[in-house]
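Feature request, filed as a ticket because there's no other form

It would be nice if the structure record came with a short human-readable summary line next to the tokens. Right now we just get the raw output. Example of a typical job, pasted below so the devs can see what we mean:
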Amino acid sequence: VFAIGTMVRAATKTFIKKHSEFVYGTADESLLAGSEVELLRKLLKDFGLRHGYTHRSVLKIELDGYNVLRSLMDMLWAAIVDRESDDDAGSDRVHPFSRYVYRRISENYRRVFEHPSDDVAMLPMRYRECLLLTDMISGMTDSYAMNLHAELKGQIGEYDPVAIRVKKSHEGGNVRKPFRVTGGRPSNKACAR
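Raw output as currently delivered:
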């Protein structure tokens, strides 16, 4: 606790001293790099990297988190792009799983996506889709992400969200027909490449 307080005070002093550099983005080093606690920061960082972040339990948690986020992003992305009309963000989702997952996205995020302000509506649809995905993922707590992932994995059945992503990217996102998956493999030859 003492080290944290010391570092916070040092960061505050450095910020006050170099206020204009940080405000205008011209600072050439971090708050602590230019402070009296730079050596302490370096020692704590080295210790953490050597003894904390490489421990098996930490690496397992990191890997679990990576796998959950990757899987969630696949499922959410499929739900965002698997719609009847590529030009209408609010059009019905093609697959029942996509419909279910899309409804699990925050209503506020969906409203902004489906009824954007004029300046956002001018952005390319793919960019708006990416915004929706990043808004949803970044707004999750760890426990919410784990619970949502478990819920969606329990409902997924034979559906393959990665096949939707692959199909959309191979066809430039202009898919109007439903995309079917059989036996866990895409039925569209373009995806089998």
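Something like this underneath would help us a lot:
Residues 174-193 have pLDDT under 50 and may be disordered.
DSSP finds ten helices and two strands in the chain.
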